Amino acid sequence: MKRICLLFITSLTLYSMTQAQPITPPKAAVKPKDLITNGHKRTDNYYYLNERENPVVIKYLNDENAYLDKVLAPVKDLQTKLFEEMKGRIKQQDESVPYKEGAYYYYTRFITGGEYPIYCRKKGSLEGTEEIMFDGNAMAKGHNYYQIGGFEVSDNDELAIFGEDTVSRRLYTLRVKNLKTGKLYPEAIPNTEAGSFAWATDNKTLFYIKKDPQTLLGYQVYRHVLGSDPKADVLVYEEKDNQFYMGLGRSKSKKYITIGSDHNGVATEYRLLEASKPLGEFVTFLPRQKGHEYDIVHYKDKFYIRTNWKAENFRLMEVPDNYSSSSPKTKGGEAMTDRNAWKEVIAHRPDVYLENMDVFANHLVLGERQAGLTKIRVIKQQRSGDPAKADEYLNFGEPAYVAGIGYNPDFNTNVLRYSYSSLTTPSSTFDYNMDTKEKTLKKQQEVLGGFDKNNYVSERFYATARDGVKVPVSLVYRKGTKLDGSAPLLQYSYGSYGYSTDPGFSSTRLSLLDRGFIFAIAHIRGGQEMGRHWYEDGKMLKKKNTFNDFVDVSDYLIKHKYTSTDKLFAMGGSAGGLLMGAVINQAPQLYRGVVAAVPFVDVVTTMLDESIPLTTGEFEEWGNPKNKEYYDYMLSYSPYDNVEKKAYPNMLVTTGLHDSQVQYWEPAKWVAKLRTLKTDNNQLLLHTNMEAGHGGASGRFQALKEIALEYAFMLNLVGERQ
């Protein structure tokens, strides 16, 4: 591969190809604001950047965008090439594998040039006549951003609830469409939760979650009768504790409408209402209790319960269904609240994390995680003798992969739909006959442009952290890449909320691999790859383990000649952006460049402001800084608060003006402060998408432009412009 050697060009002395004037970075005005908490004073010089409607703030963000364009002008053509290259790998006219629900087969498809999915269905068989439910391309016309937030079809298959977001604040407007006539009902209910709605069996009553437009927390469940004025909707439940997130749906058995309340890995509570009795009252399955998390799945005359009661990695239990309206146990659900009456089905295992479950008429399917890898376990519902003999684990045969239970709405089937991919295997959809044990590949992501999985190599190994803990690392590179320290390497992690970063396939990543990059995922603490303890050891007052693990993996990769300090790049987004900020404060010398996407970097100030979306629900993740112990600990690692006069790596920071998860001003303030204090001449770039939020652009191709920007930034730094 041809490489072009470039003189190191700094952001402060950079000259464009066509003009002799140096490119000067924008400078945000300094407006000190004192913040006092627990008797301690901090001074924030850029607090005012949170004024979203302030023309001065908007100008600053636009100036930063213009500066980025000038600095990266030498690789503008490369950025365009990368975009076209990544777009060229995507099969533009494509469709998903249909799934059967009720009398219909449902699927989505894309057309050539289309940015948005078209949601379709066919009645009776796949040879039936196609019905278009939602044409995303047509619905998105006139909007800079557009997102359909899920849909739910009524029991008679004639009506569909769906949500629309045209701003990217995750505040969806609920609509109802008549699928027979194609007409929309006049109701347009704003500020609702995406995908959290349910039909009653009467095909006219529906339930939905209302969100607080300021905090963006779903906190109220309403009942609506189709055709009535939404102002007359009945409030059926209100969550009083703003540390809980809510979800709403219908059980797979279709018997119950469920309200789930979750306190971010600390407590869970479910409420049930028979879908055939929409005017009834929701009844609590088991009241919330700090430290107890559980999930429930209804199966015939009982419930399966995934619970961490006396089981850190969760176990599976069951209890008879005593919620029928004819049951004397209806009021209070006494039989359910007595956990001593629960029967154990699968015991707790210290080395296996029970992640999720699905039920079928004749089978129970479990999603498990062991040694950092996902597993799918199939169990016969009716079994005799040793239960283990009726169990089967699906075999996947690769060292690093991700497999998961798919969407299986059909209860009366012996076929399990599951997904599979690896760092070298494109996303695949399988059907597995749970009786005959036959696997059928229904679809594998088609990667255009001559992709051959045999051209790539994946590895999995463990790096030892400073406290002796073994951290899994998944890695992929193109065959022929030298492992002598000369290759550039991109190290990625997330490491928060118990979210596991699995080694899945990415067609966009090929643009880096084919240019000599190695890609590595560090499965650091704060995720849940190695079980529940992996998460517990990377949150609250143990959060620094997350950052230490990442740095120690970087040291390992350098020591073992996968890369070197002048070729090592780091990337993380959202809470992974916090990781990036903490890492460059701790060990900036290790990295040539860092990409921090929508980074959560002003930890203390954000967690003190309960009006900001998601703050209160995350006290159990980071701690409540009103408590001095947590304040001091958070302050010791908060990236924004710990910027100091020293050299930092080259950095690309991205955000969205309408971000609902991490407010745009966090990365904007961070960049402004870094510009003032950093002692190096490395690039520091801020890109704000002025029309999007946390997830970036909404179209499937428009989003590639943001990835192309990130890749061009890194490739430029290693002298690659091809």
UniProtKB/TrEMBL annotation:
<dbReference type="Pfam" id="PF02897">
    <property type="entry name" value="Peptidase_S9_N"/>
</dbReference>
<feature type="domain" description="Peptidase S9A N-terminal">
    <location>
        <begin position="38"/>
        <end position="445"/>
    </location>
</feature>
<protein>
    <recommendedName>
        <fullName>Proline-specific endopeptidase</fullName>
    </recommendedName>
</protein>
<dbReference type="InterPro" id="IPR051543">
    <property type="entry name" value="Serine_Peptidase_S9A"/>
</dbReference>
<feature type="domain" description="Peptidase S9 prolyl oligopeptidase catalytic">
    <location>
        <begin position="505"/>
        <end position="719"/>
    </location>
</feature>
<dbReference type="InterPro" id="IPR002470">
    <property type="entry name" value="Peptidase_S9A"/>
</dbReference>
<keyword id="KW-0378">Hydrolase</keyword>
<comment type="function">
    <text>Cleaves peptide bonds on the C-terminal side of prolyl residues within peptides that are up to approximately 30 amino acids long. Has an absolute requirement for an X-Pro bond in the trans configuration immediately preceding the Pro-Y scissible bond.</text>
</comment>
<dbReference type="InterPro" id="IPR023302">
    <property type="entry name" value="Pept_S9A_N"/>
</dbReference>
<keyword id="KW-0720">Serine protease</keyword>
<keyword id="KW-0645">Protease</keyword>
<feature type="signal peptide">
    <location>
        <begin position="1"/>
        <end position="20"/>
    </location>
</feature>
<dbReference type="InterPro" id="IPR029058">
    <property type="entry name" value="AB_hydrolase_fold"/>
</dbReference>
<comment type="similarity">
    <text>Belongs to the peptidase S9A family.</text>
</comment>
<dbReference type="InterPro" id="IPR001375">
    <property type="entry name" value="Peptidase_S9_cat"/>
</dbReference>
<dbReference type="Pfam" id="PF00326">
    <property type="entry name" value="Peptidase_S9"/>
</dbReference>
<dbReference type="GO" id="GO:0006508">
    <property type="term" value="P:proteolysis"/>
</dbReference>
<dbReference type="GO" id="GO:0004252">
    <property type="term" value="F:serine-type endopeptidase activity"/>
</dbReference>
<keyword id="KW-0732">Signal</keyword>
